[in-house]
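Possible regression after last week's pipeline update?

I re-ran a chain I had predicted before the update to compare outputs. Posting the input and the new output here so someone can diff against the archived version. Not blocking, just want to make sure nothing changed silently.
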Amino acid sequence: MTTTNIDAAAERLLGAHSGGIPCAPVRDLVATADDAYAVQDRLTERWLAGGRRLAGRKIGLTSRAVQEQLGVDSPDFGMLFADMAVPDGAEIPAGAVLQPRAEAEVALVLEHDLTHERHTAADLIRATAFALPAVEVVGSRVRDWDITLVDTVADNASSGMYVLGNRPVLLKDVDLRLCGMVMERRGEQVSTGNGAACLGHPLNAALWLADTLVRVGRPLRAGDTVLTGALGPVVPAAPGDVFEARVDGLGDVRVAFGKEEG
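New output (post-update):
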């Protein structure tokens, strides 16, 4: 794969991001996951150079069904920037996320770096300050969500914004594998699941991420937020929608979507 193709894919996605108009897929320019991560890295460097601050990472494709749909057997990851964080209960302006969808997750906030080549569960537990309930608002710069693995990876793992609950919970005080999740949209139940739906346990997803990021030279650091992956089905979001997710042992988190003007 040529550098020219990687640069062209990055520019296409950047144009959709800044212009607010979804673009064509980038799989005509990049063919492998490694190439797609190279595109993601180009975007990350551009954003960091422009003043955005890296605040953590998100894990995607933790659902076996979605993995089978895209023909992969492992998750993917994307960057979380500080300006993607939305306060609990706040409203996301219309158009801020292209083609938004909401999913309930477990978030981990780290107290220590994770820099080993291979981490144990004990390493991860020791490094985690606390867990929080979260709603990730995924989005796609690719028109009509017409994505393959390379499209979503290049597009920062279809990231958008994220909302964290405000009551930190120590890992010793919650069973993340068995915790149930219910998410409502305007009071109607639209998604249910549990921690086991996320690669068998949200910590399994976080371990995969920690090891992978060391290999690519961007290890997780103290203070990072990790979105560990969806606990249930992802739900489309429309202007005026209000989502509330409750995760057993972690509490609830809420986000609203602003109505379009005019």
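Follow-up from reviewer: compared with the archived run. The mean pLDDT is 95. Marking as no regression found.
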